[in-house]
């Protein structure tokens, strides 16, 4: 591939993606940045809301990634937690579903930089 062609692809956003499967799994971010990930099957539980509230306090600059399509109406409770704590959030819809899991993540709390936490699940 010619260098100019590669530069043109990157300018248009059509260049190669780094770890696309990992980014699909973690709602558009990399595993190394994930602080907490909540599976779809855990969305309605009070334990997941409590865990998220604790992590939001501990990581005030972390962004809550919310997959509205997967979470359904329950996303509002989690959104309110992010708003109350002052954390930024991103609402995602029509998110590409990961082929790596049958119980995808509905919420991911992610840092802007690598945190490399060993346990991100509840």
TrEMBL record:
<dbReference type="InterPro" id="IPR029064">
    <property type="entry name" value="Ribosomal_eL30-like_sf"/>
</dbReference>
<dbReference type="InterPro" id="IPR012543">
    <property type="entry name" value="DUF1694"/>
</dbReference>
<protein>
    <submittedName>
        <fullName>YueI family protein</fullName>
    </submittedName>
</protein>
<feature type="region of interest" description="Disordered">
    <location>
        <begin position="1"/>
        <end position="22"/>
    </location>
</feature>
<dbReference type="Pfam" id="PF07997">
    <property type="entry name" value="DUF1694"/>
</dbReference>
């Amino acid at each position: 591939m010619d260098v100019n062609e590669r530069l043109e692809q990157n300018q248009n956003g059509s260049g190669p993606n780094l770890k696309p499967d990992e980014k699909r799994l973690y709602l558009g971010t990399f595993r190394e940045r994930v602080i907490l990930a909540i599976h779809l099957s855990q969305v309605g539980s009070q334990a997941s809301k409590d865990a998220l509230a604790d992590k939001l306090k501990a990581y005030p600059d972390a962004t809550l990634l919310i997959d509205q399509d997967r979470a359904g109406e329950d996303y509002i409770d989690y959104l309110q937690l992010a708003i109350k704590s002052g954390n930024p959030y991103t609402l995602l819809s029509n998110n590409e579903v990961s082929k790596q899991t049958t119980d995808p993540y509905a919420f991911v709390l992610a840092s802007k930089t690598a945190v490399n936490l060993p346990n991100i699940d509840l």
